[in-house]
DNA sequence: ATGAAATTTTGCAGATCACGCAAGTTTTAC
DNA sequence: GTAAAACTTGCGTGATCTGCAAAATTTCAT
């Protein structure tokens, strides 16, 4: 559906991607987004400053463009799975479906994490995107649990799921150890199934004895 | 200790509070922070625009000033309790210690919530403050659970606690029903103790209805 | 009380951001 | 091939936020 849509669509997508990548490149080179201007990004991508702002409202949004994309895909997976699976494990499996570890370079992910972690404006932007994800997902969760979206339980469940996804990914990126990302995610989701007051049984460094899934 | 610190300290605190309140007032009057300028806020509080920016980096920060204050107090309570209590219930009880329902007008809280919910910039600002709280609290949690701050478990626990505090407060503000805030908080924390896949025993609206998760 | 020291307030200038508008350019579709 | 639709660009504008230095205010020692 998005393939045959002609030159214009493809060019737009390419420009947007180029701007996002240019932002990433410059941010790394200059050790932080705050040291990069919209003007520089536009120049790096070969368009005018005005055009940059046609595509992104801010350089923060440009840098987190693929996060936003990812979010959309995750939601699609979630919608699909939520019709055949209890919502909690639908989140876990939708997350595993994303296969970040195969799609992205782990060093690039680490760089990105560091950029975000070091910049208040990026932290805010990312948090804002998480909140948007919350808003988009709450209906799915409410429907799936047979509750209202204003109830407490679906909000807690969704919040827990988002926290789990963010934390486990960050943790795995920082130090994969001998685990796959899917294992780490599964482990993290299991913590909430067990009850949060129950600390995880296996110390995080022991290598064997983890039957996957 | 902060009492006898002379006229200067007191005036600064008063100015800061005045600026924050002015921001709140104007934001309500104009139906959103985006319709208020720093210049207007400064005028309303009787100082120069430059002075406003000496106190707050942005109008969003000004509007969420008391949230920041609250955060600090919560951390103090948490630190105290975490030495005598397991960390999970320390969070719950530290939160209850705050007694928002007694300290703040519920209508004002509702207004504030609506302002935040309707403004992307405020959502980002608040999320940023939550992340700051995360950063400040993670050491306490790690110490209290005997783990490293880079481990997964303390991050999940802290994330769950923050989600619980935010969600239960918002939920209670939106519709207190016949519950106290402390009850709602306790109920919410209990969800995570039980295991997130276990829906709460008492449905929030209909008395029968087995939840079919 | 008084004058010097420390601190705060303020105006000004400058860099950036983000958006509306209208003219110019490219792509599409007939 | 040409007209319509969509995209790019430059310009102008209003707002944000910061540094700097002068003026005003508070503090403190005497």
What pair of chains forms the biggest interface? A-B, 48 and 50 residues
CATH architecture verdict of the largest domain in chain A? Orthogonal Bundle
Question: What is the C-alpha radius of gyration of chain A, as a whole number of Å?
Answer: 19 Å
Q: Characterize the quaternary organization of these chains.
A: homodimer
Order of helices and strands of chain A: HHHHHHHHHHH
| Individual helix count of chain A | 11
CATH topology of the largest domain in chain A: Tetracycline Repressor, domain 2
Corresponding CATH superfamily of the largest domain in chain A: Tetracycline Repressor, domain 2
What is the CATH C-level name of the largest domain in chain A? Mainly Alpha
Structural class of chain A: mainly alpha
List the uncertain runs of chain A.
Answer: 204-213
Number-wise, the strands of chain A total 0
Write down the domain tally of chain A.
2
What's the N-to-C terminus distance of chain A?
35 Å
Mean pLDDT of chain A: 92
Biggest β-sheet strands, sense, barrel of chain A = none
- State the shape of chain A: globular
Describe this structure in words.
Chain A is an all-alpha fold and 213 residues long. Helices cover 72% and strands 0% of the residues of chain A. Chain A has 11 helices and no strands. Chain A has helices at residues 6-29, 38-45, 49-55, 59-63, 65-81, 87-98, 100-103, 106-118, 120-145, 152-174, 181-194. Chain A has 2 domains: 8-58, Arc Repressor Mutant, subunit A, CATH 1.10.10; 64-194, Tetracycline Repressor, domain 2, CATH 1.10.357. Residues 204-213 of chain A have low confidence and may be disordered. Chain A starts with 5 loop residues before the first helix and ends in a 19-residue tail after the last helix. At the A-B interface, helix 9, helix 10 and helix 11 of A face helix 9, helix 10 and helix 11 of B. The structure holds a DNA duplex (30 and 30 nucleotides). Chains A, B: Keywords: DNA-binding, Transcription, Transcription regulation. Chains A, B: It comes from Glycomyces albidus.
